[in-house]
Amino acid sequence: MRLNCAIRAGWLALAVVLSGAFVPAAQATLSAQADPPEHVVMRLPDLPGIYPENPPDFTKTTPDWWGYYVSADSAYRCDSRDNIATASVIDCESSPWVGRVLAGEYWFAPPTGLGPDAAHRHSYYGTFASLLFDDGTATPTIVSVTHGENKNLVGGVPARHHQNTIVPSVQGGPGGCNSGFLPDGGPYEDCYAAYSGFVGTARTSVVASNGWGRTFMDDNGPIVWPRYGYRDASGKRLSHGVRHPAGIAAGGYLYVFYFDTGRGGFTATTSSNEGAGFRVARAPAAALGDPQAFRTYEGRGRWRPSLPAGVSAQQMSDAALASGSPARSDPIFPSNSYTFNVAKIRGEQRWIGVERWYSDVPCRNHYGRSDTVLHTALRYSSNLTDWGPRVDVPELQYCGYEDDLLRYPRFLSTDGASTREVDGDSFMLLGTGDPVGAGAGIRRAHVRVAES
């Protein structure tokens, strides 16, 4: 899909009062200024369907190379010497290694050792975060936090149809309800009636024999579950699952933030469903190979198991699909949130979050379609579970997903060293927009925050 909307230039300041434990002082005023997003080209090999749908995350397993993880039809890694904080081009065409590290069933035959139809990656499987765990006591490990989809999908030439397996009563195929690009060249359309989202992890060791992590990853399967399950015993839908995860390591744990679509219907923008909104789960770093080790936050310091019994990378039972997560708390953010990502503030015991959220303000996108305004906001926390109010950034707002030039934003330090730790007064946001063509759509916006 090609986005042609103009970016408003110049600087835009805002001020908001934050109180309590979320700022160093008892009460402080923050103002944030954002540059217009810059375009960064990622030159990728000529592989079918490879373009950055969400902004690349990276690990550094060798001193001179960034290992960039890119999700498109599936997930890829390419190694480059180019620093995404300063370079205008990330050259993966001349990379010493570029290859697929995760794959959905629709696009490729299942990797050896996995079942013929792993429901959580039936139609799509990508990485939304990739972290290196290396405490010096064991073999270093790269862990990816994954987003999977099970839906009716159509694509390719000639077109291939892929039927969802969670609520198969919603039929795809010719004349059915399908997700895919419109035949007239219009935007990608989703059949939300057939959509089910999943959040999981995948891992690989970092050793010389696999080129220091340059290999297909081992799929651990889902790690969290929607509060109300997916479908009941009769096959009726209970929820559309979980999606849009983010991950950060802190205090010996991997924390994973994810959106629960709640009970009822679903759209791409907002949800008024019961129980809808962002939640957070965590697992000890030493137990990341066990999906059942994850616990979802319930408030007041309580954590409960995230998964019901009967869920693994190879299968999920009918009873599990009908069961909700054992964790029954309210979300930490409201239902009009869309994505969320986190970084630690360097030198402080605080974290900063970037949230995308939809308002009810109507607008019309460049396709001429009605939509609502998508906003960008900052939040602050001292413990990763309790977050302060939104600090909206009006410059980084767009008319819905189609006009968005900063999709799925993640933090980036100004020196390009980290997507998990940034200076509190100056950092970058990486996002995507205009995803047609190889590497067409990465954007970075420089944000400055001042305290008074």
Strand content: 35-45%
Count of DSSP-assigned helices: 1
> Could you say which structural class the secondary elements and strand pairing correspond to?
mainly beta
Q: How helix-rich are the residues, as a percent range? A: under 10%
- Principal-axis shape equals globular
**Low-confidence segments:** 1-27, 109-116, 435-439
Q: How far do the termini sit from each other?
A: 42 Å
Query: How many strands?
Result: 30
Rg (CA only) = 21 Å
Question: How much is the average pLDDT?
Answer: 84
User: What does the main sheet amount to?
Assistant: 7 strands, mixed
Short description:
The protein is mainly β and 452 residues long. The protein has one helix at 318-322, and strands spanning 14-19, 27-34, 38-43, 57-62, 65-71, 75-80, 89-91, 98-102, 124-133, 141-150, 153-155, 160-162, 180-181, 188-189, 196-205, 218-222, 242-250, 253-260, 277-284, 295-299, 302-305, 337-345, 351-364, 370-381, 391-392, 398-399, 407-412, 421-422, 426-432, 442-451.
